Amino acid sequence: MTVQPRIGPDGSIAVEPDHPAVETPKTADEDPASEAPAPPSPAPPAGTTGGADATSAPHQPGPSADGGDVRPRTEAAGDPQSSDAAASVVDPAAARSAVALARLTGAPRSAELTVDAAEAASMPIPSSADTVDGPRSTSGTKPGWSGWHRVRTRLARRRIDARFTVANWFRWVVERWRRSLQLRVAVTTMLLSGLVVIIAGILSVGAISSGVLDSKRNAAHAEVINGVRVIQDQLAAAAPQDKNGLNRATQALLDTVGNRGAAAGLFSIVVVVQGATPSVSGSTDVADVPQQLRALVEQGKFADMFSPVRAGDGTFTKGLIVGAPVPRQQSAVQLYYLFPLEAEQRTLTLVRNTVLLTGILLVALLAVVALMVTRQVVRPVRVAAEVAERFASGRLRERMTVRGEDDLAALAASFNDMADSLQGQITKLEEMSRLQRRFTSDVSHELRTPLTTIRMATDVLHASRPDFEPHVARSAELLHAELDRFESLLADLLEISRYDAHVAVLEPDPIDLRSLVRSSVDTVAAVAERAHVGIEVDMPDGPVVADVDSRRVERILRNLLVNAVEHSEGRPVEVALRGDGRAVAVTVRDHGVGLRPGEAALVFDRFWRADLSRNRRTGGTGLGLSISLEDARLHGGWLHAWGRPGHGAQFRLTLPVHSGDPVVSSPLPIEPADVTRPGGAGQRTAPGWPA
Amino acid sequence: MKGRVLVVDDDPALAEMLGIVLRGEGFDPAFVADGGRALNSFREIKPDVVLLDLMLPGVSGIDVCKLIRAESGVPIIMLTAKSDTVDIVLGLESGADDYVVKPFKPKELVARMRARLRRTDEPPAESLAIGDVLIDVPGHSVSRDGQQIPLTPLEFDLLVALARKPRQVFTREVLLEQVWGYRHAADTRLVNVHVQRLRSKVERDPEHPEIVLTVRGVGYKAGPP
Fold it and tell me: DSSP code of A536?
């Protein structure tokens, strides 16, 4: 018994007695669940399935039933030889190529796995037969290299995860947006009402603030005019020669008005006299008055300006500064009032916050209202959709509940009307179909019993025709022959009516198609002999098994063969059978006159005849190919016709090997190999499937 | 040999014509037109073969078939106007050995009757076994653990045909030829239904047959002896 080491996905090495036990490989493609991330610990459980099976490490330990025994998993399932051949130590070159592959595919897990495998491959292999402890003791020998690698791959994985999460989330949102009318209406309402609220808020806040500031300005102007009057009064009271008259007047203004303003925190005053130190009230400074304003006032204008002013505590706040010249003969005097706008600012902030809050609440409320309103509309629509779906799936008694008299009730009522009408129609059609079936069955029985009697009587007459007068004998012959035609016509009509009534049922059974070909050729042999036509059969040596309804396939083959013999003009008919694992095909070829352009599409039409002037040897019913086409369709297969004038015609039947599988290609070409005109004109039709 | 035939059919013209044909072929036909009286006539006449129309007034052909089969293994050939598989399988499952679909050719019917009658003439002399089922060919009996398993002659023939060549796989066509005696033209559904009927009698578990095994895509073979 040899001992083979196994290299695990984590770099672990398991050793077990070699035996040819091979299980079905459990690859990442087959079982996504096994793609769970490898545990980062240096000794993960041995049951982690690897993902790099394509290039290296054919022996990854698979999940084992008993937890201890690690069985080999190979790509070559069911082939013990290849399993043995692959049961060697992973060579580093293979592992490196696996790394390259992993880099190309960008699979972090594979990279981790295979690099570790390469690392492990360069490590000494324990010779003990210990399966589980072996890997644990060896895998930690190079922590630096494998640890670094693990960190790198884990980071990469996290980045990829994050991207996938965002992408998934985005996809989820888009999906919701596409599917939920409710969400769309709510979001649209929110956006539009938000826009309206923002515009309204900006306008109203703007109007309020300008109103507040205007009134402040008016009040300020009145105050300043008052101040100017006070100074003028003082100056007027003083003697014109009094040198200190101006100073006194200024002082009086500052003392009375200035102190009142400063005490109330309403304003402070600056008096500038040309050629003298400016006088101020409160904590203000002459530098607080902007030069621009001073220039205006010095020109003798009454002006104001918004500019920062000193508040009571010395800090600057927004303010209004009004300047006025005091009319005087000599040494010009300017009077400045500085109004801090703290109160107005507070008011405006309050207004703005109130508007903002109201707006947000309004928008949220509107969104909720939209959600609720659409919910009222959408819910009945959803219910209607569900009911319609159930109805469509065949539960014809499904109806919507009509509540109230609103539009939705009208919808429900119309839906129910529609359902009633549909149910009525369907029931009627079902009834008709049932009657049709009954009729078919009844006709079948009622016609067949007398026909049997006629048949037997005719046979008796036919058998004893030598005893008759010649004209009676000939009549008996004709009767006999025409009865055959009548019978086959009746049988074909009944068969096609069964298809028309959709009551034909497929009874597939696995069978070797060669036996069907053989028996149909045998059946047609007598007809072919009468027409002096040979039938050449080309079949593989091995069985060609497919799930088919042998009765129907035999009928198809019989019809194709009879048709070919009838049109063969005495030349041999060729039959070929091939299978390719997915489909089986039978071609029937004749070398007769062939089909004219456009005729290949017509051959499957009921009662269609290629040439009305030609006499019919076999007396087909004209329904054979139509029935064959239906038979092929019932199998989910194809029936194709090909033909070219002078080259004969070929019919090809293609059936799926497994009943119910679709046919995608045929093992045999529709054009015969002996027709070698390049480009292959001729006619091709695909009336069989897909229609 | 002048085989007695009981014709159970309600159509007088067909019955009369059948009579003419059968007499011409050397049979001795008797007629009954009513399913209710069919069993009494059967007991009275003791026919060698029964021709039975499936659609009868009174007791249906299926029921008549079951009643006759309950007390005799005599060959029963159904005459049916319905060629649908359901109808045919139903008839075969109720105990008929064979069927002909109307309108049949008289020669075909006679050939089938002869095939059914010929079989009883063979004098076999051997003893066979499949699994724990013992077949006494001359004694025409089948037993398991000493317990008799009642089989109709046709079922018996089918089992014997399989048992005689234990390793050979029989296609349905070959079985039709060997057991029923038909060259071509017969329907393989005959074989399927009879194999099922046989299994329901000889197998311990008809779902997992051990005596008559199916060879997928080919046919049937006997289980290991």
Answer: E
C-beta atoms of A444 and B11 within 8 A: no
- List the one residue out of A15, A115, A23 whose CA is nearest residue A63: A23
Tell me the HSE value of A577 on the side-chain side, using a 13 A CA sphere: 22
Residues of B in contact with A451 (CB under 8 A): 102-103
How many beta-carbon pairs below 8 A join chains A and B?
76
The identity of residue A242, as a single letter, is D
Q: Are B4 and B30 in contact (CB under 8 A)?
A: yes
**Per mean pLDDT, which of A131-145, A529-543, B120-134, B157-171 is the most reliable?**
A529-543
Burial pattern A129-149, b for ≥16 Cβ within 10 A else e, equals eebbebbeebbeeeeeebeee
DSSP H or E stretch at residue B129: strand B127-130
* Radius of gyration of chain A, Cα coordinates, nearest whole angstrom: 51
Contact A448 B81 (CB under 8 A): yes
Average pLDDT over residues A411-423: 88
Give the whole-angstrom CA distance, residue A117 versus residue A53: 12
pLDDT of A687 above 60? no
Highest mean pLDDT among A79-93, A262-276, A636-650: A636-650
Residue A675 and residue A643: Cα distance in Å, rounded? 10
β A573-579/A535-538 pair status: parallel
**How far apart, in whole angstroms, are the C-alpha atoms of residue A476 and residue A485?**
15
Establish if B111 touches chain A: CB-CB under 8 angstroms: no
Tokens 């009094």 map to which residue? Answer: A242
Find the residue in B nearest to A441 (Cα).
B82
> B28-71, pLDDT tens digit by residue?
999 998 888 888 999 998 999 999 988 887 788 889 999 998 88
Question: How far is B201 from A510, CA to CA, in rounded Å?
Answer: 25
Q: What angle do CA A577, A578, A581 make, to 5 degrees?
A: 145
| Distance (Å, whole) CA A379 – CA B192 | 56
Q: Rounded CA gap, B164 and B127, in Å?
A: 9
Q: Rounded to whole angstroms, how far apart are CA atoms A198 and A222?
A: 36
The whole-number pLDDT of residue B20 equals 92
Residue B84 C-beta-side C-alpha neighbours within 13 Å = 19
Q: What is the four-CA torsion angle of B160, B165, B168, B172, rounded to 10 degrees?
A: -30
Q: What is the pLDDT of residue A139?
A: 41
DSSP state of A677: -
Measured between alpha carbons, how far is A328 from A620 in angstroms, rounded to an integer? 135
Q: For chain A, say whether B107 makes contact (Cβ under 8 Å).
A: yes
In whole angstroms, give the CA distance from residue A551 to residue A555: 6
Query: Is B24 part of the contact surface with chain A (CB cutoff 8 Å)?
Result: yes
Confidence of residue A573 (pLDDT cuts 50, 70, 90): very high
Neighbours of A478 (CB within 10 A): 10
Chain A residues with beta carbon closer than 8 angstroms to that of B14: 449-450, 452-453, 456
On average, the pLDDT of chain A sits at 74
C-alpha to C-alpha distance for A251 and A246, rounded to whole angstroms: 8
Q: Which two tokens stand for residue A408?
A: 């939705």
Question: Chain B interface, mutation test: which of A446, A449, A627, most B Cβ atoms within 10 Å?
Answer: A449
Residue A282 · residue A262 · CB < 8 Å: yes
The per-residue pLDDT for range A427-479, each reduced to its tens digit, is: 898 898 888 777 776 776 778 888 889 989 998 899 888 999 999 999 999 99
B102/chain A closest Cα distance in angstroms: 6
